[in-house]
Amino acid sequence: MRTPVVMTLGMVLAPCGLLLTLTSTLTPGWRLVKGFLDQPVDVVLYQGLWDMCREQSSRERQCGQPDDLGYFTAEPVRVARGLMITSLAITAVGLLLATLGVRCWQDEPHFALAGLSGVLLFAAGFLSLIPVSWYNHFLADRAVLPVQASPVTVQVGYSLVLGYLGSCLLLLGGFSLALSFAPWCAECCHSCRKETPDNLRRSSISTVYVDWPEPALTPAIKYYSDGQHRPRPAQIGASSQRKVGFPMPRPPPKAYTNPVDVLDGEKAPDSHHGGSSLSTRPCGSALPCDSDL
């Protein structure tokens, strides 16, 4: 996999911070003193943590100048020596761990080791920022950092500026590498959730599978196959099933029979004259005649 951006950024900023901090610690440029009464106007004295150099006209530079006022015994200078060396040592250890954790000659980086290196680099930047800030705070205080009386003036040296820059780069690089803890913590939390039985039981209860029936297709949907209209699958299945058996004979319909003779009374009594047997009904008959119906 590709190296994460936070690791790449930390591996770029941390060595730059180490180089600047190392330069600030070794070079004699924490404070610039000039304006001596008994010296030429262009004489400048550079004071550092370990040495003092005298420079004239930017051409001649003589280091190893004697400390007549007790500059090296001042508390900010002694504390800065110890803290700067400690910061450099921690930075070296942090970069070693970062080298092993970021790549470690494997396909995936070691996130926990890279995060630990970020914490060490952040601490190293903080340790180097403390003496730089403290020294800058007492830069012009002649009681704390001894220097000749006025009109001698003091200014910030380039080593102090490099110390500020190196400390800030170490802080940024360490913080960036410390963000490597995020994937490692997420992986640990994910594995812990998998191993917790309560979580498994809770997940099984909350997961409900519902087998909903498929909705019936509307009659408006037409089925096409090979560019031709086909009947619905239900119709195909119904037509493919053949009926088995033989037809049962239906019973004949029942004829209606009236037990009352409706023609009774329509027949005239037999006459001896030989007339027709049917005639109009007598007036006294109560049954209806076909002609009346």
3D architecture notes:
The protein has a domain at 13-182: Butyryl-CoA Dehydrogenase, subunit A, domain 3, CATH 1.20.140. The strands form 2 sheets. A 5-stranded antiparallel beta sheet has the order 4-3-2-1-5. It has a two-stranded antiparallel ribbon with strand order 6-7. It is built from 7 helices and 7 strands. α1 packs antiparallel against α2, α2 packs antiparallel against α3 and α3 (111-137) crosses α5 (181-195). A hairpin with a 3-residue loop joins β3 and β4 (60-63). The chain is of the alpha+beta class and 293 residues long.
What key attributes describe this structure?
293 residues, alpha+beta, Butyryl-CoA Dehydrogenase, subunit A, domain 3, five-stranded antiparallel β-sheet, two-stranded antiparallel sheet, 7 helices, 45% helix, rod-shaped, structural molecule activity, cell membrane, membrane
Sequence of secondary-structure elements:
HEEEEHHEHHHEEH
How far is it from the N-terminal to the C-terminal residue, by CA? 109 Å
Overall pLDDT: 76
Question: Which value, in Å, is the CA radius of gyration?
Answer: 57 Å
Q: Work out the strand percent.
A: 5-15%
Broad CATH class of the domain at 13-182: Mainly Alpha
Which architecture of the domain at 13-182 does the CATH hierarchy give at level 2?
A: Up-down Bundle
Task: List the strand order in the largest sheet.
Answer: 4-3-2-1-5
Spatial shape: rod-shaped
Number of helices: 7
Number of strands: 7
The low-confidence runs, each spanning 5 or more residues with pLDDT under 50, are: 271-283, 289-293
**Which structural class should the secondary elements be placed in?**
alpha+beta
Please give the oligomerization state of what you see.
single chain
CATH fold annotation of the domain at 13-182: Butyryl-CoA Dehydrogenase, subunit A, domain 3
Largest sheet: 5 strands, antiparallel
Helix content: 40-55%
GO cellular component, one term: bicellular tight junction
Protein name: Claudin-23
Membrane topology: Multi-pass membrane protein
Region (Disordered): 226-293
